[in-house]
User: Fold N-acetyltransferase from Lentzea cavernae.
Amino acid sequence: MFVKPLGADAELRPLEPWQAEEFFAHMERGREFIGQHIGFADRAKDLESARELLQGYADKAASDTGRIFGIWLDGELVGGVLFRVMDVPQGRAEVGCWLEPAATGRGLITRASKVLIDWAIRERGVHRVEWQVSSENAPSIAVARRLGMSRDGVLRSYFLHRGVRQDLEVWSVLAPEWES
Assistant:
């Protein structure tokens, strides 16, 4: 297992099914905050579903179609980043993120996302990395901007979240832009 430092007090490492208890405890701490804009928190509603979610990403990693990583701050799991979708033959990947409230404002998501994007482009040869975000999620949009992504467009009323239709913004960075 690798550990990638994200500064003096934080690290990025794979999040695996055997860590379901720690992951579930983290989701319990941040469920309402995390779930404001993404369904991820609602999917890990108990220990069994948390384990299933992590197993799903372990299966994606085995088939090279996705991956999930946790962010630990001072030894505690506080969030993560993931390749929700990876299509290496087509040169496309979608990065996603989440963070519990106590860890916001430290640049952790931006730093962790840079590690993922850099790996996808430089090591895996991915040409296009996307960031899909609810138009209501201003902090996530700010991360996309900090990562140097361009806003490709808005898919109006694209998905239903907690009973409310949401617009979805699509942001992206292309390999030549990232490498320059």
Notes: The chain has six helices and eight strands. The first helix runs from residue 20 to 34. Strands lie at 4-5, 10-14, 67-73, 76-87, 92-99, 128-134, 150-161, 164-174.
